[in-house]
Amino acid sequence: EKTADNLRKQRIEALSGAAESATAQFQYKRALAHYQSAAALTDGEKDITEWAGIQNDIGWLLHLDRRHAEQEALMRRVVEACAMAGKAEDHVALAAHNLWAFALDFTGRHSEAETEYRSLLSTHTHRLGPDHPSVLSLRHNLANAMDQQGKHAEAEKEHRAVLAIRERVLGYEN
Hints:
- By secondary structure, this protein is mainly α.
- It has eight helices and no strands.
- It has helices at residues 2-24, 28-40, 48-64, 68-84, 91-106, 110-128, 133-148, 152-170.
- Helix 4 runs antiparallel to helix 5 and helix 7 packs antiparallel against helix 8 (152-170).
- It is elongated and about 55 Å long.
- The chain starts with a helix and ends with a helix.
């Protein structure tokens, strides 16, 4: 059984690699087929992290292909499945949550995106610290969501705060 599972994992790895190569060539339909084949080899009930990781790859591909409504629905399901499995704060679940917020923003649901970005920001700041690049990226996305809602002053303040941290951490030239 261990050999069969190793072979399955190697197939997933190869299919994911093929999908990444197809994506690099902007062959999104072919990439999606590879990811879907990899996803068929996973089981969210046996290994939620493995399953969610492939779903995240599909979600990012849908974003690249500008299929944001599909991305939003998929990522919402992944976030919900991870929560049901007690893995809501697992790194793969947090990545799915971020992709979901991103999709909400791209589908014009900026208020919902803001709520999700704030939730993620709280978790990421606690885990990674306020100066971590992932935290700063979330703050940037949060500011964009606020800006899209007409909260321009608040968005500007957030963008400037992110810039100040980046300049302090990386230096003014970077």
